[in-house]
Amino acid sequence: MTNGGYLHRTLLASSLAASICFWIGISPAHAQQSAPRDPAEPQQGRPHPKLLPRPTGAITRQSVEEKSMRALNDQLVSCGTRLSLSSWTDPKRGIGCGRDYIVARVNEIAKDSGGKLQIVVDKFDSTSERTSGKPLPLQSVYAILPGSDPKLAKTIFIVSGHYDSRPSDVMNTEADAPGADDDASGVSVSVESARLLSKAAANGKGANRATLLFAAISGEEQGLLGGYRLLDWAKQQGYTIAGMLDNDIVGDDPSPGAPHRVRLFSGNGEIEDCDSPGRELARAIEEIAGRQSIRMIFRVDRYGRGGDHYPFYKAGLPAVRFTEPLEDYNHQHQTPRTENGIEYGDFAKYLNSAFLGNVARDNAEALRQLAMAPAAPTNARLTGAVTPDAKVSWSAEDDPERAGFEILWRETTEARWQVYDFATSPGETVLHGVSTDNHFFAVRSVGKNGARSIAVPTEMERRPPPLPAGTKQ
Ligand SMILES: [Zn+2]
Q1: Percent of the chain with pLDDT over 90
Q2: How far is the CA of 162 from the centre of ligand 1 (A)?
Q3: How far is the CA of 186 from the centre of ligand 1 (A)?
Q4: What CATH topology corresponds to 378-457?
Q5: Which of 205, 210, 235, 289 has the CA that lies 20 to 30 A from 452?
Q6: Are the beta carbons of 284 and 457 closer than 8 angstroms?
């Protein structure tokens, strides 16, 4: 080879590279910068497992009854106030009026579902600063769709909204508190999910193997009293809570370009290097409903506010909160009035039915798939530190409807999991040539029907490096 030939080929190659870069609109310098500079991991190439498609029979957007959701919302608003301290017995005004409308609607749905949906009115007392330190009688409404699988029927997925409302002063039983958005909207999502899923179960389009509970809770504005109660109640019934989807303020979307994505809040949890069960539930919901529908927010809730997912989150359970994209604080927690030309109050006229319907569809389809899935694995562990191979192990009970497990990984700076490999049985899988240190790992169960459980991140026992004698830790 002559020098001239070498030069010629180099020039040809670089001009070809330049023209390709010109064609795709980046300079050669940028192209070089964007090339990954990390070694391939594993060196021998990644496995490419064949992934099972997601379950068929998805709940369509057209099947959501915006009109029925609107009707329930209007009925709740017509009660004037639904403050938890207001009347439980007056059928026209007060929280008892709200309860009656919800019970009537879920009974209607139960009739149409072939009697599968069971209605419980849970009566309890609770005390907080916002009950003046005295026990307050409260009632929550639960509609329960029992799971079809004998083993999974004691596993429960909960969707909830709170039907109590509040004016500016949380102790004022006389002022109007329409509470259309906060949170008749969330109640209408929970109740519409009950209709969609009991219908899906009745016509065989994805019967829920696990149990589903559709809740309308009271006492939220008095200190999450109904949320704490629901957690206790579910435990008392012997349920394992596999997911809790709180819908609170999910009806208003006034910004241009609506409907927008709903926000889905999930807290960090307290697991080192990994993620809380709530975070995994959020990821599962986003994967099912799609990134075009869900805006994950990695934060337990908005600052200065709480919700009924919180007691579940604090108990280490998978719990998340749906909330509209951009809240208008003039339209929540406000006694209706006009001041300086500004109208305050949580009225039904501000709701966006298209947005609210989207939220109902996303909740219902997420619940459908999660309740069709095998139980999530347990005891997920990562070993193999300071060796060339990461080892992932986990446990799971027998389940003839399970196809196997997906081993997931992601860069430590990434938000979402990717499937690394598939294993048919629990135990240990060696990830040859994969470092324990460059990724996070998790495992999830996959049903023969294609439904996935939430992911369970691996935990690793940590040994800190030895410290010089006399160093305090
Ligand atoms: Zn609320």
Answers
A1: 85
A2: 7
A3: 8
A4: Immunoglobulin-like (2.60.40)
A5: 235
A6: no
